[in-house]
Amino acid sequence: MSELDCDDDLSADYNDYEIRDSDEDTEDASETDVVLKYDNTDNEYTEIKEQIYRDKLATLKDQLIQLEAGLHPEYVRKIRRLEQLYEERVLLDEVFLAFENERIEREYISEKRSAVREFEERKVELKESLLSE
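Predicted structure:
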């Protein structure tokens, strides 16, 4: 082997080393890019989550304000339903009360007639008893 051949071999080895070193640098750069992209994606995800949280919190605060003012749609709907049920119940109670009053009045009149009839019958019996003695 000549000295020139040896230099060519060294040169080839050096060139291989440079190529491998360059590949490693490229891989390191790619890994860094991946980490940066992941961090950016993670940051974007976190920002989106925080924005959703803030939006939801703002919505809940608005609903609380509406509720305290008595204007929340679901609250108003349920209050109307309760008022309707209350009015129906009051109406049914009034109808029941009127029915019970009429029933009691009829029962009173019936018992009064019965008492008057018994009184008259007993009165007749006593008169007959006195006359027969």
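Summary: The helical segments are 3-69, 73-132.
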